[in-house]
Structures are given as C-alpha cells and as structure tokens.
Amino acid sequence: MFKHLPDAPLADKRPTTATAHGVTLHDDFAWLRADNWQEAMRDPAKLPTDIADYLRAENAYYDTAMADTTDLQATLIAEMRGRIKEDDTSVPRKNGAYAYLMRYSEGAEHPVYIRTARDGGDEVVLLDVNAEAAAHDYFDLGAVAVAPGHGILAWKADTTGSEFFTLRLRDTASGQDSATLIADVGSVAWVDDQTLLYVRVDDRHHPNKVFRHRIGSDPTEDVLVYEEKDPRYFVGVSRLRSGAYVQIATGMNDENEVWVIPTATPEAAPQLIEGRTEGLEYEIDHQGDNFVILTNADGAVDFKIVTAPVATPQRAHWADLVPYRAGRMVIGLAAYRDWLIWVERENALPRICYQGPAGEMQSIAFDEEAYALGADPSAEYDTNMFRFTYSSPTTPSQVFDFDLATGKRVLMKQTELPSGHDPADYTTRRIMAPSHDGALVPVTILHHATTELDGAAPCLLYGYGSYGASMPAGFSANRLSLVDRGFVYAIAHVRGGEEKGRAWYEDAKFGRKANTFHDFIGAAKALIADGYTGKGRIVAQGGSAGGLLVGAVVNMAPELWAGIIADVPFVDVLTTILDDTLPLTPGEWSQWGNPIESKTAFDDIRAYSPYDNVTAQDYPAMLVTAGVSDPRVTYWEPAKWVAKLRITKTDDNILLLKTNMTSGHFGKTGRFAALEDAARSYAFAIKAVGRGVR
C-alpha cells in the first residue's frame, strides 16, 4: 500500500476565465499550456522554464513515491524480458523476385530489415534500425516501402516523439541513402519506380497535402497533387495491391472519400470514387475490371461489400457482393486477382471469410472461447496464399499461411517464450456484464488456474471505448507478470468500440458517451459479484481516450477502485474540443459533438469531462502519465488534471504524475525500453492493492 507522502508539488493557481454559451468557465491551471507548445513539441528543451520546473518537480515526487518499487520493477522487467525471444526472425514475405523479413538480434532494441532471393539465399541488409537509432534517445521507424522494381527503399523516422517524420530514400543495391530529405511526412505510396506520392503534415500536425516526387529531383520542385481544405479531414496515400492504382483517402472518423490515380499515368489528375456525403464511409480495393468497396451506404450500419466498374465507380453503380446483415460487422477486406478476403466480427469474436472464382463464401474456423485475429494479406496480387495471425489470452501468437484454393492451413511460426509457458496454467473466460440500462457488456478474463475466485483476488481492469476501436482478446506476455502474482486481468469491451457491431459504437457518441463509463462500472460490479475480485481491489487502466474513460469513472464511482492508471489521458475534454486551433479537434466533433456551435454538445461534454468534474471527495491511488512531445493528447491535459485533483480531493491517497520529457504519446521506443513503462504500471498496481499479491 502507498503511505501518505507529504510535500506534493502544488502548481501555481493563475485564474483565467472563458465564456461559452453564456457559461463562465474558470481554470486555475490553463497556464500549463505553453504559448510555444508547437515549438516545444519538436524540441522539448524549448518548454518554458516555469512549466518544465513543475513537471520535473512532479517527476521527482513520483521517483520518491515509487522508490521502494525499484527492485520490483527490475524483477518485472527481467520477467518480461525473459519471455522475449531475443534472436528472432519474422516469416519471410514473398514479393516478386524477393522475400523480405525482419530479424532481431540478442540484446538489440530494434529490428534489421533483410532481403533474400524469393526462395531463400544470401541475405542483404536493407535497413539496420539499431544503427539508425544509435544517436537518438527516441527513435520511431514509420513507413518502410520498397519501390515496385525493388530498387529503392523509402523509409521515415521520428526522433523526438512529436510524430513529425523525415523521409529518406535508400538504394537497395548500395545500401546508401540519397541526399534527398523530406521533412514532416505522413504516409507514402510508390506510383512507379521513379514516382512517389507522400503526404505533408503542417505545423498543426494536420496531414493535408499530397505531393508527387520524381526520384533524383529536388523536393522543392515536388508537385502538389491534392490539398485538403477541410480541417476535419486527414489525408493518407497508399498503393493498391493490384499495382494498377494508388489512392488518396481523405476523411474523418465517420465520413470520407477516396481518389485514385492509375499507376500507368502518374501525372494524371486524381479520379473521385464517390464524393463526401454526411455519414458515408467507404474503403476500396481493386480487382480486374472492378473496384471492391467496403461501405456503410444505404443503411448498412455494420457495413457490406459492393463492387463498382472501374470506368464508373460512383455510388450509383455500386452492386452488393456481400450484403448487409445486422450484427455482423465487416471490418476489412483484401482483393487478390481471383479471391476476395474479408474479416468480420459478430458477438465480439472475429472470423476470416473468403470467396473465390466459384463464388462460394467460406470462412476459417477457430475453437477457443475468446481470441484475436490479425489479417496479413500477401503483398502479391496473383496468389492463393493468405497469411493471418491467431492468439488468445492463453495462446501466444501463431502465424499461419492459408491456401485459399485447398483450405490447407500451415503453421509458419509460433511465438516462443524462452522462460516457458504452459497455456494449461491459465484460464480464459468471457462473461456478459449488465450495464445501467440492461445492455450486456462482454468482458474477457484471464487468470491463473490456481487463483481462487473468492472475491479476494486483485484485478486490473482495462478499457478504451472510443472511435469504434475494438479491444482484441489477444495474448500479452507482459500480463503474465500480474496474473502469475494472483491478479485477474480483465478487458471490458465497452460501448464506443465495435465489438458488438456498429450500434455498439454509435451508442456511445455525442450525448450517449456516458454509456462508455457506465459499461465499465458495470463490468467492475459484475467481476465483484461473480467473485473474480472485490470492491476496492480493482485497478482501472486506460490510455488516451481510455484515459478519459478511467478519468470519468473515478469521478463517478471512486469507491470501486484500489487504483487508477491513466496513460496520456484525454481528460480536459471540454477545453480541447472548444479549441479549433488544436490539430485533432475539428475531426473530433463527429465523436463528441461541436461545443462551439451547439449548446447541447457543450452541456453533454461538460457533464463528463474529467477535469471539469473533479470534486471534493476521496479518490483512490492514481498514476497519471504524459509526454511533452505528444501531439495527440497534449501534456498539459494530464498536468492540469493532476494539479486540480491535488487541491480538491479530500483523501491522503497517492497521486502521481510521470511526464516523459523527451517523447510523446507512445512512450519509450525499443522492445526492451518499452518494458520499463509496463513495469512502472504493474508495480503501481501491485502496490495499490497491497495485500494478497503472491
């Protein structure tokens, strides 16, 4: 248990007010948002001294409070590292005359990208990420894309955590990068061996311009191909598997449009598939004379698959191929020359379906009660081979190659845990927890087979619940460090995700957002009622929009929790969504409502925004994290929240803010360095529940 720790940092109160819809909003800690925050995001050393000093004081307080967990964290890191096969190689991916793979060496934080002849042979190192990362405290490798003729590798990296990536071009024969450097690049797509499309990210971190680059030319001469004027829309580019088209996809969370350019005519103007329409979503692939389109058109709220002629791809010519069926969520597709493969989800479980020349729809079957699938289609268009990954909370990841023509499934790789793992030592269960309105919330549970389910076990309950993102019931080696100590690990598949179809997501938008929070509380109460854990024995964890979730539930039901872990939490919701100068805000209005224009949206958000609903009550132990370079949830949101909690709450329970002063939203990079973040969270959880951890 945490002992009371005196002398917690107290941020200065510098009162400010703002008015919206006739309501005066008071904020004592708005000063924690640096006026030069965009500059500081690129270079954290530019953070104003008073703000940096406060964040460092909080970090020092964290170090003191967690000092007695140093040995525990070291033990946890050693355990988690012991489950990683350090000298590991991916299954090669065949593409034309070559096969591509990644390899990790013992002790290496990052992979090496390698190429061989298609059926094996001498290895050629294309990119040693360890060598590129050596001079940087932070290194995030983004896109790695080889040209169609395999002669040039486009790769990009971020060295600050700000998610501003620099693009480089490497000759695959010599292994040397050209002098070409293109800054602030989003996605990248090869048109042909001499032509590259890339998206430029502006100073507000908005990917809004597509440029065409000719190999060997000066980037200042690159041609603007497309510019997105709507600040709600974000732009991406990609090459379709057939190789006949590149696409420019632009959209926000619940609305988009797609343009295509034939690769045979790189300088052709983009062709629109279907113009943006309120609420219309679609994504495309190409097959022969048709585009294959996944869409929610015509009331297909859980999506369907249609085809459209290449010559007339507009919505008026769309014809159903996989018709809409309520409750079956179609979540992705891949088109080969002779095959169409798609992934669908029903009752919170995914499945892989496919259709070939004969027209019969088939699926790949799995047996476990809860599991996760990952589709990894071939890079090649003319093939019968489809690759997928399978895991469950008890089963480490497996990579399969599936022959679509014969139905033969071949296990290509089984994740090894060098320290050992017996799935029989663990139990996975799926329960349905009633929410406040009777909705049944799926909860995936993992516990050790020897853990007694008498209500005494501690529990870590994880949730997210936004943007339609579904939480997979997959394997995590790190979680075993908690489960082996007697924890029950649970994932609440709350509304806001799409585990139970599109309606599950829609029922947690706008004024219905509180359903997400009630679902999570309902999951906790069900775990208590069923004896998996007890009241005050649960540590709730969520990150980003999941941080909003745990921030809301700790205001609503603080007595349920032994602790709260809020990773880079989106907690100052009202202020952020009122600020249309922030890069993500305009696109967020389709999720939360636009409180600038709508009094209803303003009232809805104000009612649950964690920062605005901090109240004079007892709170459990809390660990909050932030990153100075974070462009998604800016550092001042968690910092303000902690500052307000400190002067408002009525208990002596520990409240910690840990800010990474040199990185952003995703914490440390590298497969071993990232274990430090997991060990910190788990050590906090173990200490928060105190007794009963073996």
Automatic annotation (TrEMBL):
Domain Peptidase S9 prolyl oligopeptidase catalytic residues, every copy: 475-690
Keywords, sorted A to Z: Aminopeptidase, Hydrolase, Protease, Serine protease
Span of domain Peptidase S9A N-terminal: 13-414
Biological-process GO terms, alphabetical: proteolysis
GO terms, molecular function: aminopeptidase activity; serine-type endopeptidase activity
Entry EC number(s): 3.4.14.-
The keyword Membrane is assigned to this record: no
Gene3D superfamilies with a match to the protein in the record: alpha/beta hydrolase (3.40.50.1820), Prolyl oligopeptidase, N-terminal domain (2.130.10.120)
PROSITE patterns (alphabetical): PRO_ENDOPEP_SER
Claim: Protease is one of the keywords in the record: yes
PANTHER family: PROLYL ENDOPEPTIDASE-LIKE, PROTEASE FAMILY S9A OLIGOPEPTIDASE
Protein family membership: Belongs to the peptidase S9A family.
Name by which UniProt lists this protein: Dipeptidyl aminopeptidase BI
Organism: Yoonia vestfoldensis
Gene that produces this protein: dapb1
